[in-house]
From TrEMBL:
It comes from Azohydromonas lata. The keyword Transcription does not apply. This is Tripartite tricarboxylate transporter substrate binding protein. Belongs to the UPF0065 (bug) family. It holds the Pfam family TctC. InterPro entries: BUG (IPR005064), Bug_dom1 (IPR042100). Keywords: Signal. SUPFAM superfamilies: Periplasmic binding protein-like II (SSF53850). CDD domains: PBP2_Bug27. Residues 1-23 form the signal peptide. Transmembrane segments: none annotated. The keyword Signal applies.
Length: 324
């Protein structure tokens, strides 16, 4: 081989190596992208997923399909996504349970840390502590005082065992050394019905679920578990403002992908979602349901998930919770 030909081949090798990645970037996605949502249609997680994917389709002209796989405390949908072909055409709407389920269930058939790679942190929905509209409790201090005056007599409802709002109640009990009885429901809707009716004393709920009832005057919000007040609830102070620090409990939403998904696909979706989250119409829609747009890099999403897992592992252990 003459030297000129050899030199040309050597110089061209890096460019040739880049061709598959360039081809993927140019052609991807060439078919509909599936987003697995581990909840039934119509809930807060499903609404956030549809809100984002609808805007992604408008922005990119690409098709996104929502695959609702509810049940099993989100483990059914999580496992299905973990077993999907890692070709960049299946993503999972990961959220709070992805960080806490490994500590609640001993027989999971997926590994939350090893089965997925982080893509992007979409939004946070802060937890709100609510009471019936007729309740004499108007502040977080009132709730703590009532619980200490009647240990084991007051109860709190949640949308189910192991959910973010259940764990919020357990964290509240641990931090304030109060004895509240947890009453799990099959979803937040029946719990809300009993709260409005006065059958339960209080409830921790996500802002996306509670906001319409608070605005309608059916229940009263006594505190927001977030770093700042919600735009649509400017009159409700945070727990920290009321002297109860370190009670920041977000029900978070983000995209993750099956382990082995091409980095180019992850980066493409990350960039497009970040662009969508800067759209004023999307920010307004998230605000309207009590959610806060986040965004960021895959690495930031991964760090957040690890921190969440560590935090809730301790709460689960200290509260002695086990679901199998």
């Amino acid at each position: 081989m003459n030297r000129r030909l050899a030199l040309g081949l050597a110089l061209g090798a890096p460019a040739l190596a880049m061709l598959p990645a360039m081809a993927l970037a140019q052609a991807y996605p060439s078919k509909p992208v599936t987003v697995t949502v581990p909840f039934a249609v119509g809930g807060g997680s499903d609404n956030v997923a549809r809100m984002v994917t609808t805007k992604l389709t408008e922005r990119t002209g690409k098709s996104f399909v929502i695959d609702n796989r509810g049940g099993g405390g989100t483990n059914i949908g999580n496992e299905a996504a973990s077993r999907a072909t890692p070709d960049g055409y299946t993503f999972l709407l990961g959220q709070f349970t992805l960080s806490v389920n490994p500590h609640l269930y001993s027989g999971l058939r997926y590994d939350a840390d090893k089965s997925f790679v982080p893509v992007v942190h979409i939004a946070d929905a802060p937890t709100v502590l609510i009471v019936p509209a007729s309740s004499p409790m108007k502040t977080v201090a009132d709730v703590v005082a009532a619980a200490k005056a009647r240990p084991g007599k007051l109860n709190f409802g949640s949308g189910g065992s192991g959910t973010s709002v259940h764990l919020a109640g357990e964290l509240f009990k641990l931090q304030n050394k109060v004895d509240l009885v947890h009453i799990p429901y099959k979803g937040s809707a029946p719990a809300m019905t009993d709260l409005i009716g006065g059958q339960i004393e209080m409830m921790f709920d996500t802002s996306t679920s509670a906001l319409p009832h608070i605005k309608g005057g059916k229940v009263r919000a006594v505190g927001v578990a977030a770093g700042q007040r919600l735009k649509d609830l400017p009159g409700v102070p945070t727990f920290a403002e009321q002297g109860f620090k370190d009670f920041d409990v977000p029900a978070w939403y983000g995209f993750v992908a099956p382990k082995g998904t091409p980095a180019e696909a992850v980066q493409w979706l990350n960039a497009e979602v970040n662009a969508v989250l800067k759209d004023p119409s999307v920010v307004a829609k998230l605000d309207a349901v009590g959610a806060v747009a986040v965004g960021g890099t895959p690495a930031q999403m991964g760090d957040f998930m690890k921190a969440q897992s560590g935090r809730w592992a301790k709460v689960v252990k200290d509260a002695g919770i086990k679901l199998d």
